[in-house]
Amino acid sequence: MTQAIKIVALYKFVDQPDFETLKTPLAEFCCARDIRGTLLLAPEGINGTLAGTPEAIDDLVRWLEDGNLFGGRFRGAEVKYSFADAQPFHRMKVRLKSEIVTLKAPEANPGKQVGTYVAPEDWNDLIAQDDVVVIDTRNDYEVALGTFQRAKDPHTETFTEFKDYVASELDPKKHKKVAMFCTGGIRCEKASSYMLAQGFEEVFHLKGGILNYLEKVPEEQSLWEGECFVFDERVSVGHGLKIGDAQLCRACRQPLTAEDRTRAEFIEGVQCHHCTGEENAAKRQAAAERQKQIELAAARGEAHLGQDVSKVAEERRLANKARREADRKRNAG
After folding, report:
1. For residue 179, what is the DSSP state?
2. Which of 198, 219, 234, 288 is 20 to 30 A removed from 248 (C-alpha atoms)?
3. DSSP letter, residue 92
């Protein structure tokens, strides 16, 4: 059966000082075709994940590549497709940003230099080499759902902390070969550019990211373990980009595995083991009320509009910060 919704994740680093002028025409084009999701525009390029009918998404990609408005600037963008039975986004947003992926390191300029791209078919051989340091550049809650064998977890809450990890844990004189990966490839563009600027000699990154690998490498040959977190209502995907088993905790927004949901602390729609402390009482109360409304809507045979997952990363970062601060206070006491 053909799935009704086509999802496109795309990005390209390209110099565009006129990026602000693109906001309105992009929003109008997408809204006219009921395309939903989020697009980020910055002086350094474009980044986003959008969903709509296959025809609408195909129209959008063609327009970005060939439309006179863009002058060919988005040709050659990294584009990945997947499919879903239902629309994973609630609205359409085009946002203007200072960076399409925030690192706050001016020396990281993918337009000037990036690491060596590695095709998914060649990735296994590279990360199996003993002299290669394999680094997961994603944040801690993403890594918790799944990662590659032998990969190091920087334990970052935000991508900007990656600089601190490099400074404290990596040495260009000692670590001669570094292989990194992320969800769709964009963070590694910035990360590899940054590491080259810091003097690292051989820096490799997985072209198209984990999503490209899961799509192209057969499961029986895969070195990937677990599921890959994605920033929409699918929550996670596995091999073949099939929707995974993970769910979001509606109180603290942490992704939960099937095993997490068997723990005694888990209450459907209300709390999980990450947010049982007093500092999360207000969030649990709000989640409990939301769950009540979902159940009432279901009893009436109606759908309940959930929270847009595009807000999840910031909410989770703040929740993690509060939880860790509470932990520090308890330990200090």
Report:
1. E
2. 219
3. E
Kindly give the pairing relationship between strand 78-84 and strand 146-148: unpaired
Look at residue 310 and tell me whether its pLDDT is greater than 50.
no
Note the pTM of the prediction, 2 decimals. Answer: 0.80
Question: Cα(48)–Cα(8) distance, rounded to whole angstroms?
Answer: 8
Catalytic residue among 182, 249, 272, 275: 182
Q: pLDDT by residue (tens digit) across 183-232?
A: 999 999 999 999 999 999 999 999 999 999 999 999 999 999 999 999 87
Say yes or no to pLDDT of 311 above 80.
no
Could you please state the CATH topology (level 3) that the domain comprising 5-96 is classified under. Answer: Alpha-Beta Plaits (3.30.70)
Q: Which CATH number describes the domain made up of 116-226?
A: 3.40.250.10
Q: Between the CA atoms of 70, 76, 77 and 83, what dihedral angle is there, to the nearest 10 degrees?
A: 110
Lowest mean pLDDT among 70-84, 110-124, 292-306: 292-306
Interior angle at CA 151, CA 146 and CA 153, nearest 5 = 75
Tokens at 325, concatenated: 């601060």
List the chain domain ranges. Answer: 5-96, 116-226
